[in-house]
Amino acid sequence: MRPEDATRIRHMIEAAESAQRFIAGRTRADIDTDEQLRFALVQAVQIIGEAASRISPETRSAIPSVPWADIIFMRNRLVHAYFDIDHDIVWETATRDIPDVLPLLRPLLPTD
What we know:
Layout: H1 3-23, H2 28-33, H3 35-53, H4 57-62, H5 68-80, H6 87-105
Helix pairs in contact: 1-3, 1-6, 3-5, 3-6
């Protein structure tokens, strides 16, 4: 794996772990009433998608278990349709999709 790909995967993991901390002890209703939570989750998901989009095609194709296209699509949707974000989808991404993808990403990096 290229060093820059490992860096991007690390960024994905860090943003995903941040999203997990943001939602700890929270409910779906909190995203509607807590502006900081809403912005934090959207930003974390955007970072995950931006980092994914910058990983080389070779690395992405070598790791087909990660839903690269879906992750990148979500980032593009949030960035380009920021005025029409569906908070149900953001919450679902944070509570279901991110926990599913983290175990796929963590083994890709060497442990120190």
